[in-house]
Amino acid sequence: MPDILLIHGAAHGAWCWHRVLPALRALGHTARAIDLPGNGDDPTPAADVTLDRYAEAVLAATNGPTILVGHSMGGFPITAAAQRAPDRFTALIYLCAYLPRAGHSLAEMRKAGPRQPLAGAFQIDATRTTFTFDPDQSPALFYHDCPPEDVALAKARLCPQPIRPQETPIPDTSRAETLPRYYIRCTDDRAIPPEYQETMSSPLPPDHIRALPTSHSPFFSAPDALAALIDEIARLPSVNRA
């Protein structure tokens, strides 16, 4: 089967997949997670972080045919990487993620949503290079159904998020769109409205859409169910081409 590479969302890192990785490995998969540049333990200065560098990091982490899973903001890096080298990937899975529209940045897509639950939760630094999430608001926005120990982990590990990648559009997504694309909606998401997830995923075939009754962080609240959905997709004949 193809490898599975997990890509985190804004202000997170590879650490957020600590429950999903063993669940996927128990199902027989080779699964890994990386820190995007400037996130997690990656030392890249925030001022040097770009969407191109995100794509380069994803491509550098691939070892043969790979399924990319992008959470939230991670929908942009996986699309950018697949646009550059679609032959390296067998599928893209968007986990309550922004599914990029050509010519639109993530910031533009967020503002186009029907509601803005994250409004007021951003704290932008004086240089407008990064933002952080208000630690007092983060548990309710992202982790309301998650184990207390994972909420504590997140509060300790959330990092400043470089802004530039979020303000950069992907001019062309046509090569990425030649790959099988799947979307996992989170129906109790309080960060990206579930109805907006439905809108973003609506161009995909109906049988390419799955759902979990969770918050924005199913990697904490439902890791086994999430792993099972990824496993189901990975075993489809159109995807399992490794």
Automatic annotation (TrEMBL):
Name of the molecule in the record: Alpha/beta fold hydrolase
Keywords recorded for this protein, A-Z: Hydrolase
Keyword field contains 4Fe-4S: no
Domain AB hydrolase-1: 4-228
Pfam families: Abhydrolase_6 (PF12697)
Domain of life: Bacteria
GO molecular function, one term: methyl jasmonate esterase activity
